[in-house]
Amino acid sequence: MAVSADGKSYSLVMFDLDDTLAASKSPLTDDMVDLMRRLLGEASVCIISGGNETQFRNQVLGRIGVFDGLADLHLMPTCGTQYLRFSDGDWETVYKEDLTGDQTQRALRVVEEGARELGLWESKTWGPILEDRGSQVTFSALGQQAPVDAKSAWDPDGRKKESLRAYAAERLPDLEVRSGGSTSVDITRKGIDKAYGARRLMEILGLTTEDILFFGDRLDEGGNDRPVADLGIDAIAVHGHEDTAARLGALLD
Fold it and tell me: Cα–Cα distance between 178 and 165 in angstroms, integer?
């Protein structure tokens, strides 16, 4: 199975989730569900995102349903620190690169101290600001369930996130600190980003960079999708899930 784009053939299409396949923390739209089902009839699909397993289940699996193509769907929550695949009628964890207890506690402490010191600790939030995702610690400035409009308005040029990322990275030299979604900073084990997940998946499936096409909304320098493109994987920069739907529809047609 494969899809073609610009004269090249790809056996696996990889996607970021928030602001690429769906609005931030939101479920796939009906149109995107149809496109995903069509795509899984033509090629393997991987979704890799900073979101945790619960978000993947709510945003993707709860919408896409159960069908024969699930065996070709690969899920990589928390920036590829975890890998799930469908086997024998259920989703199994192939691997999960958890932080140690000490790493988790230091990450939580430093990112909260930084947010307060930099004036980024908000009083009006929607859900928890700090989350221990096992293999990743995530700071979400407005909380995990903040509405899309509020998140978009909080840091339109990315300066707030970058100031907190730099603060935490300086104080956590043994960990990986990255800008995540529109209001988030993610912390994982050193050397782990979306490129790590892509490399692990290629090893497990026996693929090369030439076999993969990637869609992401943060392919800019410093963006959390950029490491995938830096591996040499062909990448398409999108601006929201509507743009992805249009481009994916054209590719399938």
Answer: 6
Residue at token pair 């709510």:
58
Q: Which residues of the chain have pLDDT under 70?
A: none
CA gap 118, 3 in Å, rounded? 47
Q: Is 61 helix (H, G, I), strand (E, B) or coil?
A: helix
Q: How far apart are CA 62 and CA 170, in angstroms?
A: 39
Report pLDDT for 133.
85
- What phi and psi, each to the nearest 5 degrees, are found at residue 209? -60, -30
Model confidence pLDDT, tens digit, residues 81-127 = 899 999 888 899 999 888 999 999 999 999 999 999 999 999 999 99
User: Hey, what are 221's tokens?
Assistant: 């320098």
Are β-strands 73-76 and 82-87 bridged in parallel, bridged antiparallel, or unpaired?
Answer: antiparallel
Residues sharing a CB contact under 8 Å with residue 35, sequence separation 6 or more, in sequence order: 245, 248, 249, 252
List, as one string, the DSSP characters of 191-220.
Answer: T-SHHHHHHHHHHHHT--GGGEEEEES--S
C-alpha span between 1 and 136 (Å, rounded): 33
